[in-house]
Amino acid sequence: MFTLWRFVSLPDVWQHRLRALFPLVGIALGVAVFLAVRVTSLSTLRAFERTVDAIAGRAGLEITGRGAPLDEAVLPLARRVPGVAAVAPLVLADVVVPEAEGAALLVAGIDVVSDRAVRDYTFHWTEGDKQDPFAILTQPQAIVLSERFAQRYSLHLDAPLPIYTSQGTQHLVVRGLLRPEGAAEALGGHFAIMDIAAAQVLFDRVGRLDRIDVVPRQDFPLDTLQAALQQRLGPGVQVRRPQARNQAVEKMLRSFHVNLTALSLIALIVGMFLIYNSTTMAVVQRRRELGILRALGVPRRRIFILMLSEALGMALLGALGGVVLGLFLARLALRLVAPAVSALYVLEHVTHLTLTWDTVLIGVGLGVGTALLSAAWPTLTALHMSPLAAMQQRGMYSQRQAPLWPITLVGLGLLLGAYGLSRLPTVAGVAVFGYLACLALVLGISCLVPLVFRALARVGRQTLTRWLGVEGLLALDNLMYALWRGTVATAALLTSFAMMISVSIMIASFKRTVYTWVEQTISAHLLVHQASPGGERSVLTLPHRLRQELVQLDGVRDVDSARGIDVEYASDLVLLVAVDFDVYARYGSFPFAAGDRQQAMQQVLTQQGVLVSENFSRRYAVGVGDRLVLDTPKGTQAFPVAGVVLDYSSDRGTITMNRTTYAAYWADDQVDAFGVFVAPDADLEQVAQRIQQHFRGRYPLYVLTRSKFKQRVLDLVEQPFAVTYALEVIAILVALLGVTNALYASILERTRELGVLRAVGATRWQVQCIILVEGGIMGVIGGVCGVLAGVLLAVILIFVINRQVFGWTLQMTLPVPFTIAALVLLVGATLLASVQPARRAARVHLTEAVQYE
Amino acid sequence: MSLEVAPGEFLAITGASGSGKSTLLHLIAGLETPTSGTVGIGGVALETMDDTQLSALRLRTIGFVFQFFNLLPALTAQENVALPLLLAGQSAAPAAARAAQLLAWVHLEQRRMSRPSELSGGEMQRVALARALANDPPIVLADEPTGNLDSHSGGLVLDLLYRSCKEIGKTLILATHDHAVVQRADRIVELRDGAIASIAPLVR
User: Fewer Cβ in 10 A, N or C end of chain A?
Assistant: First the structure.
């Protein structure tokens, strides 16, 4: 084998470097995209884990309330449980720092004595410091920032630091800095500490704690301690390991990450077509050489191993290149994914990329596997070549048109298979069969492309000749003559374009559905809230009592409120929303999917009924009349389900209840936002200004009109798809590479024909036009079939995958202007990809091309 | 070498393999450029022409018949013959009619819708000849046109080439080893090592 590699493979690869480059780039891009998405997903998860671990320190367990802060009295009880070595109370609050470009900051109020047993802090010493660093915290209004945060936003020691909190604007002073070690690494450095007593006052937690961290005795089993604490403290608190929160977040993000990963595989699938084409081209080009080898006695098996090992070598090179490129792409992808995760799921500042060996191995494995799979069939055809036929003068006239019925049958079978797969349920919450149905669909339609070409040749030949002259005729005939080459490149184009169209349909459908839903449900004229600029998830709330102040302002007719918290249901985190139902019922309406509206509203107002979202109902099989059991700070409570409503607030599912019900069980006086209903004769802008004026200096409010709020909601809908646009563009680039590759292959194979054309008088421009028209035909067929495939893919995405994973009902919407524009751009891009091959074709050396004795 | 060919003349070029027969035809057709000297057709030197002018020359002034036919495999016989007409800008219908006419002249009217893979060697060469005559060029160049044919097919092709010269008035320059072909030429140029060894009018 070494002889064959040395004297056959290497010279061939070197001589046809361009032919070898295309599949290499295709694999590299495919692996890079997959790796980038996976690294991004891992990095966002690891960032959260690092934060949890950094803040947890040496704590083996943490005690929290069920949806509300703990009573301080729990602390001494926990301390006395056997097996507890130390306990440390915490008050935790998210604040916004206006002098740090409005960045969010997690402030931990710590007990300076007990916290040292749990966490390590390394203070940044300045010259002259002699005191105990923790004594800094006892100074009035003292806060200690992480050094990283201070440096990033140019904040200095002893400088005043105003912060926005859910209790209004507060004024602190930076008294110390923490080195980036231990707890200070949490949230990418967006972490600060202050004295717990001061924090309790500042954040309205007097007599209450957010968490108690428990350090177990070394010899004491953790499970036993956990059970003992739970029993001693009662059902009103939750005792768990810090890592349990990692699992909860991982579950929350899983669907998001799985979707992204599935999309990232598109580039690899498109790369498959590229490799198939390239390998087939190599076999055809080397027909004579392989025939000579066979005539010299090299058995079929060794030819097969030779070709496959060449593909393996290329794949390995490409995959390794893809790993390097993937890391670079991951940095870019992180900028697109992290804001979406922060906006929709959990606030996190991702600063490090997490690359694991298994990620690299999976990426390389996928790249190599894809290459070998794609190269297998064309390599097998090399085995069946007769040595004599291969060595004889190239059979310019002897190529027969293979019958189309086998590939057509395969295509129809795949389409049928796609339908069957789409009917199957999820596997552990992942729509595996749904994604397989998508794959079967695109492969099935790809298999029908030869039929489309044949139909075009029969039906459109005369029309094409009439429009485009002899160039059109020759281009079409060339494509028909080497059908496999043109159709594989077209299939690659079709696949990537179909994905773009399907995602654009999904986004348009999402936007339209959510827009309609917001139109129906948000009836307030103004939305009032505190929020971080930059679109991060809202970290600040407002006290519900401000409602009274708002109602009394001129021009305000009524005010309702909304508060959303995460609660546990069936080991998942779902969204619980509390709304002033009495006000809401007067002006707004929920679009009901099940249940009588009047009855449901009545039940919610008077009988502690709840409304569940459609996706919640589907996921947990909960319907009207059922009783929903939730853990509340006041104990376990069953709430009657009054109705099922269309609600797109959360992909995890939403439970909506009346504010009074919520207040009764959660003792939470905060709201996320107020909805202001303006009097009919009042001016909207003036009322908005009046509200801001009224609260100036106390709460930095954002007052949005309904239309601006709707636009923000639509922007939020699009945010998770930001990275998918990038993935699709890369996939289309790979496909365009395939077109260029196929055209180069066509030129190399038709050198003599092109020479003959020039010899009988065709100009260079005419030859170029033939190649351009070939590329154009591939672009048009790939684009039109891609639209069809994209629509069908969107049906699977919307009505199968989305419904199975998120439980939502979406109104399917086809974005016609975008589709047409994308189609035109695709054809244009394909023509552009054909320019270089066209120029190459025109430079064919005439006498070398036309063979002589 | 120096050589003049008169309009309507049948010139045969002979010589051993590698003597330069094909190269000479390439030079006349503008497919290759001489390193020194000049090639002129109708008083116009080829080296003064750019690529577009040379293409026009090959399209309208010269018809080339190759040894290995060089038909386009994806086109039918009629389409192969019509190709130069279409390249010259003629529309499909008159091009097809002219092609049919030429195929009838080479006795292949029954095979006009056949593809090259369905034709014998002699039939393919006749299609190639018809293609060479499509734009009615004054000059026909043929490089070993019977080299790949059996004697019967070769004789048919040679007859047609001869008729194109003597009946239609084409200037025919034909490179060959075939003595039977040489016998029918007006003049014979023998090449040796890239130079003219002898020029002789045929003595019949």
Answer: N
For the full predicted model, state whether its pTM sits above 0.90: no
Does residue A632 carry a pLDDT above 50?
yes
Give the Cα separation of A323 and A404 in Å (integer).
Answer: 39
Q: What pLDDT, on a 0 to 100 scale, did the predictor assign at position A393?
A: 41
Q: A-B interface: how many C-beta pairs under 8 angstroms?
A: 93
DSSP B32: S
Ranges assigned E (strand) in A422-537: 526-529
* Beta strands A526-529; A673-678: pairing state: antiparallel
Q: Which of B22, B79, B86 sits opposite A852 (nearest CB)?
A: B22
Round the average pLDDT of chain A to a whole number and report it: 84
Q: Could you give the percent of chain A with pLDDT greater than 70?
A: 91
- The one-character DSSP state at A403 is P
The distance of Cα A299 from the centroid of its chain, to the nearest Å, equals 49
B-chain residues within 8 Å CB-CB of A479? none
Q: Give me A96's structure tokens.
A: 């916004």
| pLDDT tens digits, one per residue of A757-804 | 888 888 999 999 999 999 999 999 999 999 999 999 999 989 998 888
Q: What is the mean pLDDT of residues A265-277?
A: 76
pLDDT at A203 over 50: yes
A397 contacts on B by Cβ (under 8 Å): 71, 73, 115-117, 124
Q: Would you call B17 and A853 a contact, using CB atoms and an 8 Å cutoff?
A: yes
Largest CA distance in chain B: 48
For A752, the enclosing helix (H) or strand (E) is helix A751-759
Identify all chain B residues contacting A400, using CB atoms and an 8 Å cutoff.
117
Measured between alpha carbons, how far is A447 from A453 in angstroms, rounded to an integer?
A: 11
Whether the pLDDT of residue A28 is over 70: the answer is yes
pLDDT tens for A776-786 read 999 999 999 99
> Which chain B residue has its CA at the smallest distance from A481's CA?
B74
Interchain contact, A756 vs B147, CB within 8 Å: no
What ipTM was reported for this prediction?
0.75
Closest approach of chain B CAs to the CA of A398, in angstroms? 6
If one counts every other C-beta atom within 10 angstroms of the C-beta of residue A694, the result is: 16
Q: Which residue of A has its CA nearest to B65?
A: A760
The b/e string for A207-230 (b: 16+ C-beta within 10 A; e otherwise) is ebbbbbbbbbeeeeeeeebbebbb
User: For A760, which of B22, B59, B79 is closest by C-beta distance?
Assistant: B59
Q: pLDDT tens across A576-630, in order?
A: 999 998 888 888 778 899 989 889 999 999 989 999 999 999 889 999 999 999 9
Residue B169 has pLDDT above 70, yes or no: yes
| Distance from the B176 Cα atom to the nearest Cα atom in chain A, whole angstroms | 12
Residue of A nearest to B56 (CA): A761
CA distances (Å), A619 to each of A317, A378, A493, in order?
44, 46, 37
List Cβ neighbours of A674 (8 Å cut-off, separation of 6 or more): A527, A528, A529, A542, A546, A547, A550, A559, A560, A561
Q: Which residues of B79-102 are buried (b: 16+ CB within 10 A; e: fewer)?
A: bbbbbbbbbbebebeebbebbbeb
Residue A438 tokens, joined: 């998508």
CA distance B52 to chain A (A): 6
So what's the pLDDT on residue A344?
A: 60
Q: Higher-confidence residue: A358 or A279?
A: A358
Tell which of B64, B72, B149 to mutate to test the A interface (max A CBs under 10 Å): B72
State the pLDDT at residue A243. 79
Whether B55 sits inside 8 A of A761 (CB atoms) is: yes
**Residue contact A761–B75, C-beta within 8 A:** no
Helix then strand then coil, % of chain A, to nearest 5: 60, 15, 25
